[in-house]
Amino acid sequence: MARHRPDAAIDTATVVALIAGLALLAYWNAFAGAFQFDDYNVIVDNPAVASVAAWWRSMPGIRPLLKLSYALNREWAGGDPVSGLFGGLFNGLFIFHAVNLAIHIGTALLVYAIAHRLLVDHVHAQAVALLAALLFLAHPAHTEAVTMISGRSMSLMALFYLGSLLAYLERRRWLSLAAFAVALGVRETAITLPLALLLVDRLRSPHTPLRSAIANGVWHWLLALSMAAALWLLPSFQYLASVSLATRPLADNLIAQSGAVLYLLKQALWPVALNADPTLPVFGGMSSGWNGYWVAKVALTLTLLGGALIAWRAAGLARWTGFGLLWFFLHLAPTNSLLPRLDLANERHLYLADVGLCLIAALWLASALKTRPRLLVGLAVLLVFGLMLATHQRNRVYRDEVAFWRDVAEKSPANSRAFNNLGYALAAAGQTGAALTAYERAIQLSPRDFKARLNRRALCRKIRAEKPGRTGC
């Protein structure tokens, strides 16, 4: 029987150049993107990130290091996020997009490095690790974390989160703790890292006693607990927690999130209808909401989770599949489990969770075609470039607010917020007739939507002032 020889090694410089080059190819049109959606509350209209001095005065607060990154970007852009910089050579948004893309490249490199280290015993370790990193790099669902500026909360957190994991694997514990602290300072959902370390330790040494595996990351556990306590003492976090708990009952939210998790899984596996503001069904309550739809959603979610746990206890490819699925569920847990959110699901939350799915895809593809390496390379190239093309096309939606909200409205025709925001964008673009139509649709969908009514009234006043004889308002 012929033996499979290990791949010829690719030097690190080539890997870096390949990942950076393909990222630029997939995302070059992202630099034409405008501020969108949450970008205004988080960056443009947020006085706390107007400068580093303003950021310092706003402390303490949640996500301090994320806000610092925005404040630094605004200073580099001359203080105005939409003005020119470097003598007018670039739009002020250029620096925001450049930093986001650099973060994405760095995160993809960490995916490669971690996968390569975990797959040390695999005959095609480097090839599988590189494919996993390229799938992660090119996936169009990640545009919300890369092309949308405020998506940086996920990508920057993931960069330091994975950096901490890599340092942990290399037994550089204090560097790992430092990176973990930064990740927590960017986004509080990094608090799952100790569980991720435990998952990785059990993957590498399945027979290690659980107590010993937990002890290996004891300082990470202490840091996570300290972060949780510090957050709870912040008035701003207490307010957000109270709003969350008032949104819907915890049990109802947990059931509704079964549908949200399946939606995100579908977006990861078949990203053909990406949506920045999806309208997902909300569970109607334990007394009257149960029906076949929710029974099926909950049953399928539990089946996937149970299957992941069963596969995790197996060996070989099945164990890796279990690991990838458990990684996926773990990293959706902070946003898509018990605590209620106004929006059930956002695609940017896939960013870190997708690492597990990309690793599974690379391993399964390599296993299926292990005796046909040329076919494997060909399919991998087609898959990566297909995802890159989809990413390039998805970036076009971010070019202006009209394109962005029109895309949401077309994919979520029952979303009143989408039509209100589309109306606002159309009015700003001078398309008053289309704006009025969008506002009327928003009011029709949600008669209590006071924002759409106020926006329509303001637009009508403006139209009457400019054209006193015009009717239709």
How would you spell out the order of helices and strands?
A: HHHHEEHHHHHHHHHHHHHHHHHH
Strand order of the largest sheet: 1-2
- Give me the Rg, rounded: 24 Å
- Helix/sheet category: mainly alpha
Largest sheet: 2 strands, antiparallel
Share in β-strands? under 5%
Label the overall shape: globular
Distance between the termini: 81 Å
Mean of pLDDT: 92
Helix content: 55-70%
Instruction: Please mark out the parts with pLDDT under 50 across 5 or more consecutive residues, or reply none.
Output: none
The tally of structural domains comes to 2
Number of strands: 2
Counting H and I runs of at least 4 residues, what is the number of helices? Answer: 22
Compile the SSE list and pairings:
Blueprint: H1 12-27, H2 38-44, H3 52-58, H4 64-76, E1 84-85, E2 90-91, H5 93-118, H6 125-138, H7 143-146, H8 152-169, H9 173-186, H10 193-204, H11 210-216, H12 218-233, H13 235-247, H14 250-269, H15 292-312, H16 316-332, H17 350-368, H18 373-395, H19 401-411, H20 416-428, H21 432-445, H22 450-466
Antiparallel strand pairs: 1-2
Helix pairs in contact: 1-5, 1-6, 1-18, 3-4, 4-9, 5-6, 5-8, 6-17, 6-18, 8-9, 9-12, 10-11, 10-16, 14-15, 15-16, 16-17, 19-20, 20-21, 20-22, 21-22
